[in-house]
Amino acid sequence: MDNREKQLEATALAPMTRTSLGWYVWMAFLAVMVAVGVVAYVYQIQNGLAVTALRDQVIWGLYITNFVFFIGISHAGTLISAILRVTHAEWRRPVTRLAEFITVVALMIGGLMPIIDLGRPDRIPHLLLYGQIGSPIIWDFVAITTYLTGSMIYLYLPLIPDIALARDRLKGQIHPLRWRLYSLLSMGWRNLPEQRAKLERAISIMMLLIIPIAISVHTVVSWLFAMTLRAGWDSTIFGPYFVIGAIYSGIGGIITVMYIFRRIYKLDAYLTEKHFRYLGYLMLVFGAIYLYFTFAEYLTTGYKMIEGEKSLLQELMVGTYALPFWFFVIGGLLVPVLITALPWTQTIPLITFASILVNIGMWLKRFVIVVPSLALPLSPTAWAVYTPTLVEIAITLAAFAGFALIFTVFSKLFPIISVWEVQEGWEHAQSVAAKPEVSAPAAQPAE
């Protein structure tokens, strides 16, 4: 093993053996936020949804906004990673682990949101026992459960060689129970040729399965809205519109997380400017497509000006919801697209800043999809008013803190860079460089 491989292993395994005071402070902060959210939810269970701002008209609020947002960024890992693997993009190798874990954590947090939104969570078994197959809620349950199961398998398979690496390199440096966990999860991996072949085959099968599953999930999420006869929701474009938005926000999530771990764990040699720039190009492409979908959506409804759509557009453009709407359009779409399109702004800090704007803008987009259409009166009455309560805000902050908490714990248990994939990339580059150039055959003399 050369010095480059030794340095890679040392860098990837260092967070698993060294723990700073700052890590404990950060964990304590996140744990407190999650605990506050749990207390708020217990209070909500005891007193009912009356402690929230959810009422007969606005039946969905922050919880469903968070649900759609987290399911959206879950497309970051499995879908993007699978597409990059299918297309044999060599630059993907240091990024895939972070991306795939984003998917699993986002699905775990997002899947809790509809349960929290229920006034009677004890009736969840009724969904399985008496659910109607024609209901989009059932479709959503099946799709998300399938996606989470597939994503966990897709995360675990490429982890096996690196878990075996931790098993072999960290013996004696970590707690015996943790070492036994690695021994169990590594499944006897010895990096044998037949093991590598089986692993590659399994990963290939999963990446081909996960792409249509991921697309179906956010399509089904969009049908929760599109199958309802309400202004702002009654649209045939919502399926692809939501999928493109999910990929767009997912890429933003990858860039933000990648920057944080790059700074904390000194991964500059592996998460380079090239990775930020290439992901920035992907964000540019999907941002431009999403901008087109947004323009098409509001142009077609605004041109016809049906009564309900007219009132909704007025509230979005110049009324109650104008601030979140225009922040989404300008801050979440136009500014990130410009930053990633202009050569002189394609720097790591600016691309990361653009990704943060995307995350904020896409959360606000989900909010202006969910709330205004419900607040719009169905009869000649005043608009409903929705102002989230402290309970909803506490649970929302706890959801984001829980996302960060699980990610932080994961980085202490497993390498956040796929060591074997990076090494495989180096081997591939060396083999390509070692191949002699094939010259054109010399012309045969005419007889």
Task: Tag the structure with descriptive keywords.
447 residues, mainly alpha, Formate dehydrogenase/DMSO reductase fold, 16 helices, globular
Mean pLDDT: 88
**Sheet with the most strands?**
none
Structural category: mainly alpha
Can you count the beta strands? 0
Highest-level CATH class: Mainly Alpha
For the termini, the CA-CA separation is 56 Å
Helix amount: over 70%
- Note the beta-strand portion: under 5%
CATH topology: Formate dehydrogenase/DMSO reductase fold
What's the CATH H-level homologous superfamily?
Formate dehydrogenase/DMSO reductase domain
Tally the structural domains. 1
How many helices? The count is 16
CATH architecture: Up-down Bundle
Rg computed from alpha carbons, rounded to a whole number of angstroms: 24 Å
Characterize the overall form: globular
Order of helices and strands: HHHHHHHHHHHHHHHH
Poorly predicted tracts of residues:
none
